[in-house]
Amino acid sequence: MSNETKMWGGRFTQKTAASVEAFSASIHYDCRLFRQDIAGSIAHATMLARQELITDEERDQIIKGLGEIEAEIEDGSFVFRPELEDIHMNIEKRLSEKIGAAGARLHTARSRNDQVNLDTRLYLREVSQEIIDLITSLQQSFVTLARTYLGHVMPGYTHLQRAQPVLISHHLLAYAEMFGRDKERLVDGLKRINIMPLGSAALAGTGLPIDREYVAELLDFPVVSANSMDTVADRDFIIEFSSSCALIQVHLSRLSEELVLWATEEFNFIELPDSFCTGSSIMPQKKNPDIPELIRGKSGRVVGNLMSLLTLLKGLPMTYNRDLQEDKEPLFDTIDTVSQSLGLMAELIAKTTFNTERLATATSGGGYMTATDLADYLVRQNVPFRQAHSIVGQTVAYCIEQGKDLTDLSLDELQQFSTAINDNVFTVLTVEGSVNSRISTGGTGLARVTTALAKAEQVLGIA
Fold first, then answer.
1. pLDDT, greater one: 154 or 281
2. Would you put residue 368 in left (φ > 0), alpha (ψ -120 to 50) or beta?
3. How confident is the model over 93-102, as a mean pLDDT?
């Protein structure tokens, strides 16, 4: 393509080098913005006609032609041309081929600088809601599983050492809370995404009598951007979205790590569905937790995408620079990776089963997990906590020396460490007593978890 036929080629005398065209083209990835680009162009043409910058007939031709182009792209007959660089130029060129001079009027009072900003905002507005819906599905899987195993116990860990007994449901609801915060971040980010940039033009606005507020109304934006220079330079909303997604993927990775551990023979806490695992090419007995491992591994690329975007932006002067073309690939990869990971994890969790007998054994067999309950008991007997802590520490040391658990000790043995201990102590040393004593708000006591579970079911629409 000669520069005379390029949309911007009027002042150039030499043909663009083929290597430059190949290096600078973005159509192979920004083609996914075609619906948003067409929607923005329809709104822009509607506004131009309303402001008498184009005729109603030209507007109708443009809208009809754009509809036909959208159908061509959807049915696969549209030919994307790399020499036209991006989705904007590909669509505009095809429009001019279809409707003639009216197509050349569409770019009146806009630039690709504000056009791409609009397309990306429209796209992220849709994608944010899609990811929010995927998170909701994952939360529903956690809550449904929590209902199934309500009342069953498991070890709770700190430092990957057995710490205190908790309900399985409490652990699962912890993840429902975690991913709930992820949804809140996406919802809040929509406030910064949902700002209409079109009309900022190249960087300084336009001298033509456009109506930005009318375009915002057509595209369902609550506000228009306040400063044209900031608008075309702004990619904060992309970085904020990518940051939220990176945290989602990190949360998925933390969950994956637990699933991988729990599925080992050493833990044997859960059974992952065969349909989400693979075998070994040499060891026929293997059942490998590949999906959690891959989700855990993909957290690196999502976090890396965020770092790429931050690095991309850090040295750019006002306003638009071609560097900003590099925001799309990490953004799109993040969207694809997080969306797939959330969808797979929701299915996996829904089909995971807990080995409740093994969990009960792990909770009661070693680890002195009711030691804190003994300390709390002493506090209720008016023993200062630091003194109670020391007493229980000495008791545990004695248990280790004797090869016993706390529940194996007689009253006489316990009273050698504190005369404040009475025969009612044994109810708090059991796993059931320990769990049900955790009645503070947000605790693992059965009553608290039952209430939390019912609330989660109501919020998530689970009957």
1. 154
2. left
3. 97
Annotation says 280 is catalytic: yes
Tell me, what's the pLDDT at 272?
97
Confidence band for 1, pLDDT divided at 50, 70 and 90:
very low
Give the integer Cα–Cα distance in Å for 123 and 305.
18
- Give me the catalytic one of 19, 77, 159, 440: 159
As a whole number of angstroms, the distance between CA 12 and CA 1 comes to 13
How far separated are the first and last CA of the chain, in Å rounded? 61
Please identify which of the residues 2, 24, 28, 280 carries the catalytic annotation.
Answer: 280
Counting beta carbons within 10 angstroms of the beta carbon of residue 360, is it exposed (0 to 12), middle (13 to 18) or buried (19 or more)? Answer: middle
Determine whether 107 is an active site residue: no
DSSP of 240-267, one letter per residue? HHHHHHHHHHHHHHHHHHHHHHHTSTTT
**What number of residues does the chain have?**
463
- In Å, how far from its chain's centre is CA 283? 36
Give 16-52 pLDDT, tens digit per residue: 677 777 676 789 999 999 999 999 999 999 999 999 9
- All domains of the chain, ordered by start, with CATH? 9-108 (1.10.275.10), 113-361 (1.20.200.10), 366-460 (1.10.40.30)
CA-to-CA distance for 290 and 253, rounded, in angstroms? Answer: 13
pTM, 2 dp: 0.92
Please report the pLDDT score of residue 5 as a whole number.
59
Torsion of CA 125, 131, 136, 141, to 10 degrees: 170
pLDDT tens-digit profile of 346-405? 999 999 999 999 999 999 876 788 898 999 999 999 999 999 999 999 999 999 999 998
